[in-house]
Every structure is written in structure tokens, then in C-alpha cells.
Amino acid sequence: MPSFDRVVLIFNPNSTGEAQQRAEDLRRDLAQQSPDLAVEMLPTEHAGHATELARTVAQTGAPLVVSVSGDGGYNEVVNGVMQAGNEQAVAAVLAAGNANDHRRATQERPLAEGITRGDITRIDLLRFTSDGPDGRAVRYAHSYIGLGLTPVVAVDLEKGGKGSLREMVTVVRSFAKFRPFEIETDDAGRESFDSLVFANIAQMAKVATLAEDQGRPDDGMFEVITLRHTAKWRILATALKASTTGLGKQPSVRTYAFTTVTPLPLQVDGEVVELPAGTAVRVDIVPDALPTLL
Q1: pLDDT of residue 175
Q2: Sign of the CA dihedral running 266, 48, 8, 15
Q3: Among 14-23, 87-96, 168-177, where is mean pLDDT lowest?
Q4: Mapped to the 3 state alphabet, what secondary structure does the chain carry?
Q5: How does strand 6-11 pair with strand 39-43?
Q6: Is the pTM of this model over 0.70?
Q7: Around Cβ 82, how many Cβ atoms within 10 Å?
Q8: Are 130 and 102 spatial neighbours (Cβ–Cβ below 8 Å)?
Q9: Crossing angle, helix 71-84 and helix 49-58, to 10 degrees?
């Protein structure tokens, strides 16, 4: 039987991924499979609300907090659960968004079955710490953190809308206007990149395989996928390789630190964060940080 005292489903009622319907379907399945398990549905009302709801829920008892969402919504819930600091709180995701990389890469069984069995496991999280003009900020990522093309495309997708054809047009436009970015590291000094991704899972953007035979979210490491500034045809070739054969083995590390040279957008599990120039950034792996269901 599950070790949870209740299940709380957090969803965006205005989601394009039918989050509310998926939440209702899961509640119905749990009523049949685990009739004694209390299930509550909490709709979000604004951006960031999922973090607030998850933090409040996770502060007491032994709840399972389920984000019925894509990667961005799940990121909010994960951060809320981590902020609560309750070791008995568990987080999971029911895919209901445009980008469901985390669930796609880690799923072992249907979520309703996992809840009924109560098979809790622990995964690593990426921890992003920035020290800039506005002080220190800490945020966790379940799947990846990206700079360069990744957040630029994400910002444009939010402006231009989602959907297969619209996404293709947006990506082409973003690629055409994209310019490289610079960062400074203690080892190499100032470097110019087209893309820099820190990955806790092996897949990204539905079809791209970042790190072959790597990217386990429980190995105590994360992969660093770098694309230094180069000709645009080489960027396209790399993207094609990622979506077909995969990029092959990538460097695995426990920490990566740099300083921004100019203002930069950074993407954390699909959510974009703006970094001012001169911000000191550190990405760490936090082993076994999150109790979850896969």
C-alpha cells in the first residue's frame, strides 16, 4: 500500500495539454485502485502559483504532490517541494504539456500503478545558484539547464505560440537571428558558445538524444553538452545528429561554474530566467535529492 497520507494533483486549468482532464482521469483511476487514498485537486491561478501550492502542501504529513503538466510546471512543483524541506514529501509528474522530456526519459510504469504500489525512488537534481546585482537565487532543475539557442527558442515559442507548424516556423526564425554568447570560467577565461546545456537526463526537446548511455538521473553526475561558436551549418548538423544517432558520450561532472559577460537568458526545465551581466553562476548536482515515482 502507498506510504502517502494523501495525493494532491496540481494543474493549470487553462493548459493546452488538457491538464484538468488528465488530473480527473488520474483521480478516477486512483478511486478504483486505491479507494482509501485521499486525492485533492488544486488548480493554479497564475505563473509561479504551482510552487506556492506545492510548498504549502509539502510542509505537513507525507503527501504525494503530482504536477499534471509539462516540464515547466513540474519544475515549479519540484522547487516548492524542495523549499518545504519535508523528507516525507514526494513529488511526481503526470505528463500533460507540450514538452514532457522528463517523464518520457524516466517513466517505468503508468503513474496510477506507481502510486498504488508506492514504489518510491530518489533522483538527483541540478541546483542552479546565481549571485548577481539582485542577490543570491537558488533554483532546482529535474532535467536540464541551458544557455544559448535553448532559451532563445523557448522565449520565441512563448511569443509565437505552440503547435507543430508554428513551432517549426519559430525555431527557424530564432535560429536565423541567433547570435553567440560569452561566459568566463576560472579555467579557460572568456569563451564564446552557441549552446551550453547541463543535462540530468539523456533526452531533450522530444527527439534529441544528448548523451548516449548516460544521463541517468540517479548517478550523482550531470552531462555538459557544449557547442562552441561555429558556422550555422555546423549547428544544424549537430542538431540533426542529436535527433537521429545522438551526440554520443559527453563529459560528466558534479559542478560547473561561470560568470556572465552580458545579460543572458537561461532555461531551467523550460522556464526562462534572465541573468544580468556579471552574475556568478554555479550548477551542482544534488544526489538523491528528490523522492519520486517513475
Answers
A1: 54
A2: negative
A3: 168-177
A4: CCCCCEEEEEECCCCCCCHHHHHHHHHHHHHHHCCCCCEEEEECCCCCHHHHHHHHHHCCCCEEEEEEECHHHHHHHHHHHHHHCCCCCEEEEEECCCCCHHHHHHCCCCHHHHHHHCCCEEEEEEEEEEEECCEEEEEEECCEEEEEHHHHHHHHHHHHCCCHHHHHHHHHHHHHHCCCEEEEECCCEEEEEEEEEEECCCEECCCEECCCCCCCCCCCCEEEEEEECCCHHHHHHHHHHHHCCCCCCCCEECEEEEEECCCEEEEECCEEEEECCCCEEEEEEEEEEEEECC
A5: parallel
A6: yes
A7: 23
A8: no
A9: 40
Write down the residue that cell numbers 500503478 correspond to: 113
- Which residue type occupies 292? T
Measured in residues, the chain has a length of 294
Amino acid at residue number 189:
G
Dig out the grid coordinates for 40 from the structure.
485533492
Residue 199 C-alpha cell reads as 543535462
Q: Tell me which amino acid residue 245 is.
A: T
